[in-house]
Design a protein that fits this description.
The protein has about 110 residues and is mainly alpha-helical. The protein has two helices and two strands; from the N terminus they run ββαα. The protein has a two-stranded antiparallel ribbon.
Length: about 110
């Protein structure tokens, strides 16, 4: 360009001295730039998630609480099935009652 030798330093991951060429291909430079930007974005998200985790009061439920809830759910499901059977029995006996005692209503 202006005839001066490039300054010494690191360019593109390589160490360049004053007499060497510090040429970095454009494609590689763009890839490195994209990786740096992706890393910064991931670090920002990670910081945000860590902060959110530290400040949130939501903790994982205790194992025993979970087991108790599942047991309660199972008991309620059994009670629902029992009541459904009772309703079916009541319907059948009601229809039999109407059949035998009030045949004209059926």
């Amino acid at each position: 360009m202006d005839g001066r030798a490039p300054a010494a330093g690191r360019v593109g991951g390589r160490h360049c001295t004053a007499g060497q060429s510090c040429y970095v291909p454009l494609g590689r430079h763009l890839v490195l730039l994209a990786l740096v930007q992706e890393r910064r974005g991931a670090e920002r998200i990670n910081r945000h998630l860590k902060q959110q985790l530290a400040t949130s009061g939501d903790k994982a439920p205790n194992v025993m609480e979970y087991i108790d809830e599942k047991a309660n759910l199972y008991d309620l499901q059994k009670k629902v099935k029992t009541w459904e059977r009772k309703v079916d029995i009541a319907n059948v006996s009601c229809s039999m009652y109407h059949y035998y005692y009030w045949p004209a209503c059926t």
